[in-house]
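WARN retry 2 of 3 for item q-0093 after timeout on previous attempt; input resubmitted unchanged.
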Amino acid sequence: MNVASWPTSAHVAHEVTNVGNDRSQLSNMAAQARAATGITDLTVVADRGYFKSEEILQCHEVGITAFVPKPLTSGKVADGYFGKQDFIYVAKDDEYICPAQQRLNWRFTNIEHGMPLHCYSSSACTTCYIRKQCTSGKQARRIKRWEHEAVVEAMQQRLDQKPDMMRIRRQTVEHPFGTLKFWMGAAHFLMKTREHVSTAMSPHVLAYNLRRVMAILGTGSMMQKMRA
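OK item q-0093 returned
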């Protein structure tokens, strides 16, 4: 289940899904949160499981500011080689500067998984003095760049400037999600099909929100506002 929560740890939107990961849910849940709150200039914060470049771009295009850390899944980094983050992109020259201070120029563009990726490399790679720290292949090290990579880089800069955003996310999201799982126990949903499971989930969310309102405002104030 995907949830959109408010800073007071209340659910503003939720959706049951049978997809095994959350990578395609960011813009969807952000749109639902915007519709529920009425906030146009919306900021969304999510964990690494929600990261997908296309989703970040979709949020950007509709004016939603995203904070989602990028997973470091490069096999080269795991093997002890330089990662892409060690190569500095110079926008005005459309080139990368590698750890050896050599320039990687644009060579060609490929379409991978529907995404245009520009490939950069340097002719100096074959004689580089730190080549063994960069690649084990016979060819020059290549760096791939998505055509909208600047949007992802801008988001990373926001994260670097506000490192406490992930702490805020944990305080906001983990409380309601953990509490709901505790209430529901280890049992599975008794309903079948996503539509029926969504219906069964909604009362749990409503009950959580009511308890949060009572905890924040008090029962008397809540009843008074409900009558108004």
